Amino acid sequence: MTDLQASTAPSLSYELYPPRNEAAAGSLVETIAALEATAPDYVSVTYNGSPARRRASVELIGHLIEHTRLRPLAHLTCVGESRASLDRLVNHLVALGVRGVLALRGDLPPGHDAVGPGELPFARYLVELIREVEARRSASLAAGRLAIGVAAYPTRHPESPSFQHDVEVLLAKERAGANFAITQIFFDAAEYAHLVAAARAAGVRIPIVPGIMPVNSVRRLTRLAELAGLAPDAALLARLERASTDAERRRIGIDHAAALAHEAFVAGAPGLHLYTFNDAVDSVAVVDQLGLTGAGTADAAGADFGDANALAS
Ligand code: FAD
C-alpha cells in the first residue's frame, strides 16, 4: 500500500441505475435493501438517456435519501445538459441532501464526435461548475465540501489519442477540484496498477478506486466490453461459454470479480466500486468472498459525504 492509502479501511461502493418499469422498480427496492445490509460507504446512481430517464435518476436519489441510510453519489453528465441546467441540477441535488457527485462528460450520441452546442465539452468543466455552485452555497454546506468523483481509464478511453493523454486529463480533473476517481471496468489488475503508477508519476494524488463488475453471462460480457471499447476478456469468455447452468455462470462471474478485486487491493487499491447491474446477489457474494465491510450506515442520517472525503484526505 502507498502512503495515500494506508490510513483508512478500503471503501465499498456500488453503482445502480434507475428502474425502467414498475416491475424493475419493485426488485430494485429489494436490491437496495440487500446492498444496504453490507453498509457501503456510498451508492452511485447513473445519469443518461431521455429526460424521463434523467428524472428517474433524480427520483432514485430522492428514494435513497428518504427511505434508506445509504449515501448517494449522483452521476451527472455534460452531454444532454446546458451549463444552466447543470447549475440548477447541482443546486437541486444539494438541496435534496446529496453531498457527492460523479462528474462525467457522458457518452456522445451515436454519430457525434463532440458534445452538442451549449454543452460543457469535457468533465473537467463540470467539476469546475460544481465547485462554483458549492462556493455560492457555502453557508448552507455546513457539513463540509462536496465530494467530487471523476472517471479514470485503465485502458485508453476510446476517443483518446493515447493512454498518457487520459492520465493528463485525469490530472486536469484533479486540478479542477476532483477528490477521487473511479475506474472504467477492466479485466486485468495489471492494467489498474499501470494506471495508478502512471497517474502518480504524472502528479495525480487523488485515490483511484477500481470499478469492477461480476459478469454472469456471455451476452453481458460482450455488451459491457463493447460499451467500454474493450475486447472481452478471452479466458472469462471461454469459461462462461463452457458453463452449462446459470448458477455456474454466476459462480464464474463472482470468482472472477473477487479475484480481480483482490489483485487490485494487492496493488494498493483504496476501495472497491462494484457495478451491480441492479443485481445485489453477485455483488454481495463478491463482498462476502473478499471479507469486506463498509463503513457507511452507522451515522448516515444527515451525514455529509465523509468517506469519499476521507478517501481524498
Ligand atoms: P472526459 O474526462 O471529459 O474525457 C472525454 C474524452 O475527451 C476523453 O477521450 C479525453 O481524453 C478527452 N479530453 C478530455 N479533456 C480534453 C481536452 N482538454 N482536450 C482534448 N481532449 C480531452 N456515462 C453516462 O452517460 N452516464 C453515467 O452515469 C456514466 N457513469 C460512469 C461511471 C464511471 C465510473 C465511468 C468510468 C464512466 C461512466 N460513464 C457514464 C461513461 C463516461 O461518460 C464515458 O466514458 C465518456 O465517454 C467520457 O466521460 P469522462 O467523464 O471520462 O470525460
Automatic annotation (TrEMBL):
User: What GO biological process terms does the UniProt entry carry, in alphabetical order?
Assistant: methionine biosynthetic process; tetrahydrofolate interconversion
GO CC, sorted alphabetically, is: cytosol
Q: Does the keyword RNA-binding apply?
A: no
Pathway(s) this gene product operates in, as recorded in its UniProt entry: One-carbon metabolism; tetrahydrofolate interconversion
Q: Which GO terms describe its molecular function?
A: FAD binding; methylenetetrahydrofolate reductase (NADH) activity
The reaction(s) this protein catalyses: (6S)-5-methyl-5,6,7,8-tetrahydrofolate + NAD(+) = (6R)-5,10-methylene-5,6,7,8-tetrahydrofolate + NADH + H(+)
Keywords for this protein = FAD, Flavoprotein, Oxidoreductase
* CDD domains, alphabetized: MTHFR (cd00537)
Do the record's keywords include Oxidoreductase? yes
Cofactors named for this entry: FAD
| Stated family | Belongs to the methylenetetrahydrofolate reductase family.
Q: Please state what the protein is called.
A: Methylenetetrahydrofolate reductase
